[in-house]
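Researcher: Please translate sequence to structure tokens.
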Amino acid sequence: MDGFQSPKLVQDFMSMILVGALWGCTNPLMRKGSVEATADATHKKDSFLISSLKSFLKIKVWIPYALNQSGSIVFYVLLAKSDLSLAVPICNALALLFSFITSLILGEPMQKPFRSFLGATLVVVGVTICVSTQAEE
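Model: Translation complete:
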């Protein structure tokens, strides 16, 4: 069997995309939820530990956190059954790309838009090179 006709290879790449999406999409959501929860907590006179626990109990914080951790579980399962030299860089690159896209969708301000777009483009090129190299082997 060659390249993408291998079911294991397709399954591995789909798992990598899932991990990247779970990690990348949840990072901006956790950041936004924690900022909102922290803003609510600053008005109260609770201790740091109590206010941290209260902000973690907010739904906008713990749901993205739980999804992010489920991505870590999928990642560890993926590491056990796939090529480590591909899984780690592809998952991290895709997480960066999904985080960039989610930040754009949420309307987060970009400090240096040209560098951000260039970085996202280079991530896509790098992942494409990794995938095409693996498909040739």
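Researcher: Any highlights?
Model: The chain has a mean pLDDT of 83.
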